[in-house]
Amino acid sequence: MVVGRLPVFVYGTLRPGEANHPRLLRGRTAAQTPAVLAGALLYQGPGYPYAVDDPGGGEIHGELIDPRPEAYEAVLADLDRLEEYVPGAPGNLYERVVREVRPAAGGVRRAWVYLAATATTRILRANGVRIPGGDWKSRRGSGGRGHE
What we know:
The protein has about 150 residues and is of the alpha+beta class. The chain has helices spanning about 20-25, 70-80, 120-125; strands at about 10, 30-40, 40-45, 50-55, 60-65, 95-105, 110-115.
């Protein structure tokens, strides 16, 4: 599937004001827009969150990031490294997938989203701690090495 240059929906340590935003995104984005990912739940990880699909109607709050055109490939490569995502690798913690996201201004946009990989999702659904309201910024004291 050819998807082109999509924005990236960030919901954790890559959000403005969070640990990884200055290092990986500051000065490299053309736009940052508050947005919601419907049909997903947010779980606590060791200092960073995991998003998982939720057919039951959960939602995650974050930002839709549009990388600057000249930095697009480098930004996506840096985010893949942060998330330890390698296309097709069986040991991925996250998978980069295309989902529809609702920007605060209205409408729907397709975007890249890093979701917990299948094995990680199974563990989270069985034993994970959900973040109430689906907003990483609502928690405090997360610390740790950041991922999405």
